[in-house]
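Chain and backbone:
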Amino acid sequence: MKPLAKILIIAGSDSSGGAGIQADIKTVTALGCYAMTAVTAITAQNTTGVKSIVAIPPKEIANQVLFTIKDIKPDAIKIGMLHSVDVIKNVINCLKKIRTKKIVLDPVMIAKGGAKLINNKAIEVLEKKLIKQSFLITPNIPEAEVLSKMKINTQEDMIYAGSILINKGAKNVLIKGGHLKSRFVRDVLINKKEIKIFKNKRIETKNTHGTGCTLSSAITTYLACGKTINKACELGIKYVNQAIGSNMNYGEGHGPINHLTSVSLNKGFK
């Protein structure tokens, strides 16, 4: 089978394979597309936590991006964790040399325990510059709180925070609602034309490692294959829910989801 589209992934490596660029590659491949990568950081981690992080120099990240796209032109780009101001600025400069406008930014900023993964200056550059170059941003609630500078406790708060980000220059915002305690998970997509709520029953499991990376990569893949923003988000969320529901229960901590479950979704991109 010939890949349906080509996706460039700019993100960090997760040695356990559940999140980061490994999850991105699995997602893109399982959905029938071709994955290319630029690694921004190398982590030693497993399902119980992170042991160490080694940052890749900004120049080498740019080399990976530019040398790859010189040969193979991406149809869409997914961006994950960018760990410093210099890295963000280098990636922004690289994006100016890529023709595709289908850029999905997963603004990885907050660890599961609540600690910031990047400093305030890097957040400021991401907020003022990179968000404006992205077609879609996919923050979870803690990340949306940082970017909107408000607390989010309800669906209405999610909508208001999303509107703040639109006013700051974002084209489309998908705020993921998994952090709100409820029987149902509500993800909110907002742009200047509409607000759409994706409501799904919560799957009770501790094995959710890499769900954010996986969702943004799935949406990027569907966008690259010609789906509208609404349909791409709908299919991406459906894929992640199936992957969570069929997880393998690997590891002692927050285990990975099952990316291979997507094969059933790939039939015709219905």
Q: What stands out?
A: The chain has eight helices and nine strands.
